[in-house]
Amino acid sequence: MKLFDGGKAPNPRRVRVFLAEKGIEVPLVPVDMGALEHKSETVTRRNPLQQLPVLELDDGTVLTESVAICRYFEEVHPEPALFGTGALGKAEVEMWQRRLEHGLFYPVAQAFRHIHPAMKQWEVPQVAEWGEANKAKAVAFLRLFDHELAGREFAAGDRYSIADITGMIAFDFMKPARIAMPEDCANVRRWHAALSARPSAAA
Ligand SMILES: N[C@@H](CCC(=O)N[C@@H](CS)C(=O)NCC(=O)O)C(=O)O
Hints:
This protein has 203 residues and is of the alpha+beta class. The protein has 7 helices and 4 strands; from the N terminus they run βαβαββααααα.
């Protein structure tokens, strides 16, 4: 088994943090995204979308999409459960995973891709106005999330989950996307500090 990894890019990091939380070690194949190696034949053959991460199993089966890869490891190594437990717990994790992906991760990525000069070759055409519009969407979601976090420790309740991983990585990516953290979101700050202190955050 091997994981084609993209270094600092947020989606590959989602899988690395997930694996670290599970205590699973998978050999990484570093792909230099700065040198556009994700467009190489090695990656394209495995993922025609030319995106990372890509997991290749021992029998040559290829899995892409960060959450699908995480789901695979959850089924193979159920503990600790990172997709929730029980009917309601699993649904709540799914709900917050989707909300954080659509409400935070996506707009932060859009702001980065449509404004940052380093993304000129990646995002064609770059539409700066769309990037700016997404900054405000990310901040609006953070305020809503802050209100939610007033009553609980983690995104989906009292247990750490994949929703926290998605949220933490989106939050961290606000810096390169040049989105300022709103001053009034004390609960988000507390949540982010706690997640960042976990050893897995360094993955
Ligand atoms: N939906 C995919 C998205 C993967 C993705 O967009 N990965 C980025 C790195 S964070 C990438 O490879 N981008 C290459 C490009 O846009 O050319 C997932 O969840 O894994």
